[in-house]
Amino acid sequence: MSGTTTAVARLRAIGGGGSRWVVLLVLCVSLLLVAVDATVLHVAVPAVTEDLRPSGVELLWIVDAYPLVCAALLILFGTLGDRIGRRLVLLIGYGIFGLASALAAMAETPEILIGARALLGVGGAMIMPATLSILRTVFPDRRERATAIGIWTAVAAVGAATGPVLGGFLVENFWWGSVFLINIPLMLVILPLARWLLPESRGGFDGPWDVLGALMAAVGVLGVVLGVKRLGVGQGPFDIATAAPLLVGAVLLALFVRRQRRRAQPLIDVRMFATATFSTSVGCIVLAMLALVGLELIAVQYLQLILGLGPMETGLRLLPLTFAAMAAGATGSYTLRRVGPRQMAGWGFVLTALAVLLLMMMGQQDRPLLLTTGFILLGFGLQTTLFAAYESMLSEAPPEHAGGAAAIGETSYQLGAGMGIALLGSVMNAAYAPAFESLNGVPKPASEAASHSLGGAYRMADQLGGTAGEVLRTTARESFVHGLHVTLLVSAGLLLLGALAALKLPRLMDCTQAQQHCPPPRRSDALDRRSAGAQVPARRNAPDDVGVPWPGAESARAPRPGCAPEVDAAAAGKGARDARGAQHIRDAKGAAPAEYTEQAKQAKHAKYTEQADHTECTGCAEETEVSGASEHEPFEVTWSGRTTR
Length: 645
Hints:
CATH superfamily of the largest domain: MFS general substrate transporter like domains
Radius of gyration: 28 Å
Strand order of the largest sheet: 1-2
CATH architecture of the largest domain: Up-down Bundle
Number of domains: 4
Largest sheet: 2 strands, antiparallel
CATH topology of the largest domain: Growth Hormone, Chain: A
């Protein structure tokens, strides 16, 4: 039994269609923990520094070990799940994540905390792609899957935004280790639930797992992400510590792609990137995350250093962005069906660009209404784009490569975040620094030290005191606001480029994509179901010499709003005019005529099978209505190795 069939059987065994949403709940809780852990430590860094006394390099690795390791291993564990089972990888990830959380909470040295954070990255890399690939398997109907992905992406946004708020509360009321302890009780509950509820699924690969290719991808992604992060903290592109990992990572990824093209059973089918839908979706994810993370980082500095808000209040100010993202995720499925991926992603980018331009009105004075409005538009627009991109990418990928496709999406997410910090941070620094080149009454060494960051300028102003200190502080605030405006303008330009790129996405949500390959459908089966009153999906592009299985097939059900048409009307009409297949298909009582003996059925089926041997079916999953009742088992047809539900 294939992995997908096993998954469906397990779902039916635990309660049918409703159980899919229980599975989604478990997957969303898993993702929430990983997303929270990615940002919860940010507000605890001062407390960690005071307690463990790490060096500057150690502190950098305490913060970066988790995202670096997670990004590097996403492809490795995503493709491993396609081979050995996605649920198995997810459960192992739960265990590693829980143990690493306990180790991090009790760490007494910087080295132990760095190791624990790296181990958290391993667990996160196992959990993130597994949740999305299992979601792809559990929801074969694209309309339901769109709703599930909307909830999934909204939960990711909630987790990322909740992390700083939750971390600030825990640090203020307990100690810094408590930000990790919250994972343990949830893992103790979710691990047995996941083992019982989640279906197992695999990609159906028979060949060996490409260990060398997986390692090449892991080291390559690690090098690229590390280099991009170093660019984001102000290191020059020609610095050996920046250029070396970037170069090594790029070379290894190029060799990885070359290796995958030559293998009969690759880890990742790189041919997916040849389709405009898949490659454009990945690009939209990178651009959206580039804008989101880069702008969030600058917004946090603005709220704390310009407006003087504390960590807790800063997190609360960012909550409208989170709520707007939740709303976009909740309504994403409806929007996608109505307007299609192209308009949804494109208008999401445009709305985000308008929000960014609105935020350019920020100054040195607090304007709560302006900030709240801008953050709402920003969160709603970006989440709309991310929803359309993730849904299109996942639907375009073959089911057997669901884990690899999910890993590509999550890696794009991480790369976009790193590039956002690097690119927008560089723009910010370039616009901020020139104001300190010649300041009257301020020593040159002090001006140079203040030109690197606003926090450094404040510390230098406190040391100078008097008029010189006040001049330095005022100049720093004005320069930061100027740099913020320039950065927002550049970000708006990038977002509008994203809107243009989104034009390559499909105009409509194609609900006719096949889910699996199987032998062709028996026309007699369709006839029997039709005579019983069932709604049977019509064939598309049927051979010219094969009539439609019942009269009036040319008027098969119309597509739902936002979905691509499911029936080739010309082909159906031509088949309907075939006298052999249209006039005597039924007798007056609705039963099959006598000419349809078992021998005749077999002969016609053999002829049809030969003609349609290499044809793909394109049915859309539907609930069938038999004799006026609702039968919640999706109608399945088989055609050339793929099952259409």
